[in-house]
Input
Amino acid sequence: QSEEQIAQADLLLADNLIGEAPEATLEATLESWLRQDTLWRGILTESRWQQQQDTLRQIQQLQAQQPRFARLQAYYQQLMAAAIITPLFHYQYQISAPPRMHGVTLTAHGWFDFCQAWLPPPVDDAPA
Output
């Protein structure tokens, strides 16, 4: 897409699969997308785009990988909280789990959350 086409669009959709890689690769993928995708020029004003570049530059200057990745994730969350981006998922996921499994939820961003998953004790069908 050209910048002119992007500027004329009413709705911008991008298909970026972020989250399926090891943390180091995920960091590079997310940072590259936030820094280089041409759609940002259609989404952000010039000053906001420049601010994003400055923010990413500051994040990348952190030497330790974990704090750098945490700051990058926090910035991504800020973009979602400000409704600048909204992840849309059109994928169909199927989970294979025991039928009695409880506590699996769907997060606001469309991912399955297994943090509270649990199985009840086995049911004894034999008469007492």
